[in-house]
Amino acid sequence: MFNPMEVIGRAKQRRQRAALAGTLADQARIRAGELRLQSEHCREPGVAPSAEDNLVISLTTIGSRLDNVALTIESLMQQTQRASRIVLCLDRETFRWRELPLSLSRQQGRGLEILFCERDLGPHTKYYYTLQKYPDSLLLTVDDDKLYPDDMVARLLVAHRAQPGVVHCHRGHGMTFRRGQIRPYKRWQWNTLRSEASPLVFPTGVGGVLYFPGCFDEHVLDDGLFRQLCPSADDVWLKAMTLARGVDCQVVPRDYLWKTRNLTIPGSQQTALKRRNKHAVSGNDAQIARTFDYFGLLAPLAHEYRARPALKPAAERSGVTPLTGTYQAIP
Fold this sequence. Notes:
Nucleotide-diphossugar_trans; Glycosyltransferase family 2 protein; transferase; 7-stranded mixed beta sheet; transferase activity; two-stranded antiparallel ribbon
C-alpha cells in the first residue's frame, strides 16, 4: 500500500545525506589544506621513539595516491599521543622509478620510515613487512585516504591499556548469521556500537585497528595462503588470524558520527578497493567464505551468534543522525 509519509521520510533522509556529504566535503578540503601547510613547514618530530607503548603505525599506498599520502601521515604526526614509528610500505617494483614528493622527504626528516618492499602484496603490504620487522611492537594499521582526528591514537591506547588482550578498533561491523550460515557482508550490522569485546566484531582498517604482539595465528605471514584465499581483503585475513588465535575484538566507544571526524582526502576515491570488493567473485563475501572455511571458523562463530544477543547496529546504519549533538565540526 502506498504510504505518503514513508515517501516523505525517505526524501527527507536523502536531503539530509546530501547536506551532510556536502558539509563533510567542505571540511575535508579545509583540513587537507591545513595538513598540507603543516607538512611543508613543520619541523617538529612526528614520532616519539622513546614512547613506552612501543607503537608502530603502518600503512601503504598506491601510485595514484602517492602525492597525497603525506596528508594522512601528517594527521598521524599531529596526534596528541605520538607513535614510536610511522612506517610507509612501498613495493619496490611500483615505486622504484618514482621520485618521492618533497612532502614525504620532509616527513622522513621528522621520523617517517619508508620501507621499500620486495613484492607488491596488494593491501596486505599495509602490515606484512612492518609485522616482519617489528614483531614485538603494538601494530596500528590505517588507510592512506583518511585524515585522522588528533585523538585517534590516544583513544585506542586507552582502550588497550584497559583490555590488553583484545584487538581494538574505531570502526567495526557485527557479523550476523541466519540458520547457521553467515549472511552476506552487506547484511551485517554495520558500524556496530557494541561496547563489549566479541569474536563477532569485524574491525575495518579504515578507522585504525590496534593489534598487540601475539594476537595473530602462526599463519599470519603466509603470503602464499592469503594470496590464494583473500588477495584483496587484508581485513578478512587479519580477522581470521585473530579468530584462529582466540582473540576478541572491540570497538572503541564513541558519541559521535564516525565519518564526521574521519574525513576522506578529496579526490582519493577515484581508485577505491571497496568498489572491486563489491563483486561476487573477488569481493568480500567470496574471500570471507574461503578464508573462514579454510580455518574452520564459521561453525564456532555461528554458535557464538546463537549464544549471544545480536550486535546493536549503529545509528548511522539505519539512517542519518540528526545534525545536532553528535554531529560536530572537527575541532
